[in-house]
Amino acid sequence: MCTLETQGNIFILTLTGDTEHRLNPPLIAQIRSLLCEIKSKSESQPGSILITTGEGKFFSNGFDLAWASSNGSSNFRSRLHEMVNDFKLLVADLVSLALPTIACITGHAAAAGFMLAISHDYIVMKKSRGVLYMSEIDLGMTFPDYFMDLMREKLNSSKNLRNVCLQGMKIKAEDGIKMGIVDEAYDSGEECMEACLKIAEKLGLRKWNGEVYSEIRKNSLKGLLPVLGLVDREVIVAKL
């Protein structure tokens, strides 16, 4: 379902296979386990960076609704809530992860897949294929509370929030740059990964204290913290 490789101080987490990378409890648990491994290894590796990407046509097409309905329609709602609650923990993991994070988007990122992308600090996206898209208005579903809080913090304007949530806007890479959601866009997946590696190498040279980085990130997303059960705190490790 996903793999982890390292290139020096750079961790590359890849959602594997030519699938939609639907987020169900097993996949969420595996991603969280790899993030825990990254967290542990990065403590002794200053300047560590995470790049998350997906193989094939999708970064992630959101929650696994087929899994939610596989045990009968009567259990659909409870299984959907299970995924919502599991994924909240994954978002909290990324928001509190003690190193910079980059999402390398070379395919569609929809619904919870879009949320997975914007839970990272930086987004690099392929121009020719893939959109960022919140499908809930088209599917007839409301958003979990932490989805809305995350979008309020990350989408930069009430107009962007309206277009994404109330119009179901499908955002291509260059539109994402104009909206301030995407940082860089390239023609191929290979160019996207090369760009991510360059960003990671540049960030890694700073060798920031991971705990300080995490707390500053959390403080910058203050409106999101209560719903995720996170708090920011003061950390001082400066060599004065």
TrEMBL record:
It is an enzyme of class 5 (isomerase). InterPro entries: ClpP/crotonase-like_dom_sf, Enoyl-CoA_hydra/iso. It comes from Aquilegia coerulea. It catalyses: a (3Z)-enoyl-CoA = a 4-saturated (2E)-enoyl-CoA; a (3E)-enoyl-CoA = a 4-saturated (2E)-enoyl-CoA. The lineage of its organism: Eukaryota, Viridiplantae, Streptophyta, Embryophyta, Tracheophyta. This is Delta(3)-Delta(2)-enoyl-CoA isomerase. Coiled coil: none annotated. Its EC number is 5.3.3.8. One of its GO terms (cellular component) is peroxisome. Pathway: Lipid metabolism; fatty acid beta-oxidation. GO terms for biological process: fatty acid beta-oxidation. It holds the Pfam family ECH_1. CDD domains: crotonase-like (cd06558). The chain crosses the membrane at residues 97-119.
